[in-house]
Amino acid sequence: MFVKELCDRYSLQSRKSLYSRLEAVGLKLPKDDDGKAYATEQMIQQLDDLDQHLKNGGSLKNYTPVTSVTTHIEVNDNGNALDNTTQTTQLTTQQTTQMSREELLEIIEVLGSAIASRLQPIDPIGYNNSLEQAQELHWILSTSEVKQLIGVKPSCQKGNNVFTK
Fold first, then answer.
1. 37 contacts: CB under 8 Å, gap ≥ 6
2. Are 73 and 89 in contact, with CB atoms under 8 Å apart?
3. Global pTM?
4. Where are the alpha helices (DSSP H) in the chain?
5. Nearest to 51 by CA among 34, 33, 35, 39
6. What's the count of helices (H) and strands (E) in the chain, helices before strands?
């Protein structure tokens, strides 16, 4: 949609008004092969959202553009995080204030459960068992594997070939 059509769509008297709206949304119109500025479908949706905000009594200064919130929750049959599913939700400040407290608590609960399922209790000396097993079975561990186990990159002092923590 070209600039003239956008001005007509939003009943704007000047191009300056349109460009003020574009700035509020954080958009810049691309140009076609003839050098004419136009808006894509996605841009029009954002401008429509701004227009609705203005019709509801808002201003350009207090407008918050639509934000996409994407959560990746990976869950297997046991309820542990594994399988990758994606849910994208678009929220504006106005929509979040219109959500009920129960809806917000439900979203927080789902996100909290997903995060909690990924957390594993930390055994402060658990890495010792892994190191003992590697020693008994004569496994050769890479530097990155040792770093993952003990939390620091092993490096020997000059003249030594043994790392001690």
1. 2, 3, 29, 30, 31
2. no
3. 0.42
4. 3-9, 15-25, 41-55, 93-98, 101-118, 126-136, 143-150
5. 39
6. 7, 2
Distances 92 to 28, 58, 69, 96 between C-alpha atoms, Å:
20, 13, 10, 6
**CA–CA distance, 71 with 89 (Å, rounded to integer):** 9
Report the alpha-carbon distance of residue 41 to residue 47 in Å, rounded.
Answer: 10
Best CA proximity match to 2, nearest among 34, 48, 25, 49? 34
163 three-class SS: coil
d(CA 159, CA 164): 14
Q: What pLDDT band is residue 160 in, cutting at 50, 70 and 90?
A: confident
